[in-house]
Amino acid sequence: MKAINRRQAFALGGGFVMLTLMPMAADAEVTGDAAKWIEKFTGGKQPVKGKISLDLPEIAENGNTVPLSINIESPMTADSYVKDVMILADGNPNAGVATLSFTPLSGKAEASIRIRLATTQNVIAVAKMSDGSLFTEQKTVKVTIGGCGG
Amino acid sequence: MADKPRIKLPKEAAKGEVIQIKTLVSHVMESGQRKDAQGKTIPRKIINKFACEFNGKPVFSCALEPAISANPYIQFDARIDEAGTFKFAWTDDDGSVITAEEKIALKA
Q: Per the structure, how many domains does chain B have?
């Protein structure tokens, strides 16, 4: 095996730091502006993780248009359906991205939009069901070029 | 800017079928964060609300923030129980509304 040169050694070290930091970032509490948005949306109740699948690229080359797909497990009948889903980006100047409102006529609680992300950050989704239960999911997106001008 | 919105959905569906609807409307979605060459903030101008109804009943709607990309693309689903008309409406910050209609028939 070839001895590793200085550049590779740096890359290795960097990788290690990323590995150790990543899980912490993923489980970090939502703070700041995004937390206020969530509080307003949920009325102070704590949403639980699950039911939502949030589809975003891991690395977004252009923060101006980042495709986002969301799908929430629900029968979507008149008795049990997904009411509102709030999407937040905790690193944007304004944390709010969109609030989607479904009805039983939607058939599926599924939607796709394209969003702007200023920097590398967490995208958070909070879903409110017709029975009042709350679910959440979040994903980290690395952004190469920010999408908010400035 | 006055381009017609683009909407894609099947012409007919079986009763009870869930169809996918794709919409795209041309709009700058100026975030209110950017500055012009003189350093003045360019005022915010976005589509802040989108709504879709079928035969007068709400199907899907969403409130949009400046974090939505220019030319907002929105894709969602709808369950078809009867033939009818979809109505789409995009509401601008300045109060103007872009509207569109699409008909759908039931498969024989």
A: 1
